Amino acid sequence: MENSKEILILSLINILLFFTLTLSAQNDSIQEIHIKADSLTAIETTADSTVTEKRPSFFRRVYNFMNKCFSPERDLRYIDVQDYYNWCGMLQVTTRFEVCQLDADENFLIRVSPRPRTRIGPFFGWRFAFFGYNIDLKSIFMNSDDTDLNASIYSAAFGFDLFYRRVGGNYNIHKLVVNNVDLSKYLQGEPFDGIRMGMTRISFNYIFNYKHYSQQAAFSQTHRQLISAGSVIAGIQYAHNRSDINWQQLTDKMKAVSGTTVENTSLSAEQYNDEISFSGGYGYNWVFAKNWIFGVEATGSIGYLIQHTNNEYKPDAERSTFANNIEAALRKNIALGSTLRFALLYNSGPIFTGVQGVAFYYQHGNGVMMSRDLIASVYALVGVNF
Predict the structure, then answer these.
(1) In the predicted model, what is the mean pLDDT of the chain?
(2) Number of domains the chain contains
(3) CB–CB of 79/225 below 8 Å?
């Protein structure tokens, strides 16, 4: 019995020693792991601090900032950004329609429109920027009296447009009222190049729902809309407007056709102003079939005019003071505008084709004379991304 007890006691001691050694070994291993982990952490911290200390170059920081602005994160279920293409080439045929009206209350009104023209032009783009020039098919050389230049930059979140336009002739008279006498029957359809119109406009638009709605898919063809989506749009514009009418030329035209003359030549038709305006609207892209899109975008704007001519509105005695103040503001200080765009496009990626259209309405005055312009263009286009 005593031998058995001794053996049992020795066995228990051996078991306790085994567990003690095992725990000690485990503690040593854990400490070794902690030491190794601490060493790795120190190495990583040193590496991170080394990377942090080496800041990217100025040009790299500028590039990263521009890339975030032009290519923010989008939902790839809705938009194919086509980042595998950098360049775009396009041939575009443009047909333009225009109606221009100058009026001074009920004393004078003239409504003209240029003869419709068809232009053809090459357009070229690199990622965000799109540039083009239209050439009148009637003349290979630039017509100094009728010039249209435009440049556009479309990104996911915003669009930038530049328009330069000078029109100096090729008008036909549709309506003429002088001193409340309608003389349209004498001059309707007669050519008249005594009106000069000019506009330089810079516009900036912001797309709120840029993650799902692509303005580029509809109007620059560099992206593809995969699922229908829309967005609220807001923007700001600056414009420099100029217009004038040659009274002597109009008098000569009237005398030659009807035997009458323009007696009220004291009206100043010269307009020379700068405009700051704000706009808002909505755009929607409808994907009705694979690779097909129908896009519509409508915006309206209101702005303030800075006049460079000294013309004052003459109050109408038959109107109230409030009505005269509103009319004076509309004729001298307030600019109104609206834009409607549409696009019907097929875009398979490397090849795109379709029809686009845009209509602009602008209204501004000089205190006496109001200018109202409606310009509509239809484009047929075909191009490639590469």
Answers:
(1) 76
(2) 2
(3) yes
Same-domain check for residues 39 and 182: no
Tally of CB atoms within 10 A around 308 = 13
Asked whether residue 66 is assigned to any structural domain, the reply reads no
Counts of helices then strands in the chain (DSSP H, E): 6, 19
Q: Specify whether 342 is located in the same domain as 260.
A: yes
Statement to judge: residues 92 and 177 lie in one domain? yes
Q: Which structural domain range is residue 41 located in?
A: 2-54
Q: Are residues 271 and 221 in the same domain?
A: yes
Tokens 């279920």 found at: 77
Distance CA 296, CA 309 (A): 38
Q: Decide if 59 is inside a domain.
A: no
Q: pLDDT tens, 272-307? A: 888 999 999 999 999 999 999 999 999 999 999 888
Q: Phi first, then psi: what are they for 290, rounded to 5°?
A: -60, 125
The one-letter amino acid at 331: R
How many whole angstroms separate alpha carbon 196 and alpha carbon 66? 40
Express each pLDDT in 199-256 by its tens digit.
Answer: 889 999 999 999 999 988 888 787 899 999 999 999 999 999 888 887 778 878 777 7
Q: Which residue has the tokens 């979140």?
A: 157
Backbone φ and ψ for 57, nearest 5 degrees, come out as: -70, 165
Asked if 48 and 58 count as a contact pair (C-beta separation under 8 A), the reply is no
Residue 60: strand, helix, or coil:
helix
The verdict on 256 and 201 lying in the same domain is yes
CA dihedral 299, 302, 303, 304 (to 10 degrees): 170
Domain for residue 284, yes or no? Answer: yes
